[in-house]
Amino acid sequence: MDRARDRRPPAAALPRSLRLEAQGRFAIGYYHQRQSQFAKRPDVAAALDARSNDQDQGDGDDGI
Q1: What is the pLDDT of residues 3-16, one digit of tens each?
Q2: What's the rounded Cα separation, in Å, for the pair 45 and 2?
């Protein structure tokens, strides 16, 4: 935790408020960053697809 605190700029270096244009840039950047957290990763998606295909192609006996 101390390392993260050491990397932050001092509070005096951060602005107390942002101009309207800077607020817009912040909002757009925040939106893009949040959306990228929910984006499908190709390697994980391929592994999940392969796994579901293996389960779907079982022995055909559903026990019904």
Answers
A1: 666 677 777 777 78
A2: 36
User: Tokens in use for 13?
Assistant: 């270096």
* Contact in structure between 34 and 26 (CB atoms under 8 Å): no
> How far is C-alpha 12 from the geometric centre of its chain's CA atoms?
30
Given this model, what pLDDT does residue 45 score? 73
CA angle 44, 49, 55 (to 5 degrees): 130
Q: In the numeric block, which tokens belong to residue 57? A: 């192609």
What burial letters (b/e) apply to 25-60, b meaning 16+ CB within 10 Å? eeeeeeeeeeeeeeeeeeeeeeeeeeeeeeeeeeee
Mapping DSSP to helix (H, G, I), strand (E, B) and coil, where does residue 30 land? helix
Domain extents in the chain: 18-56
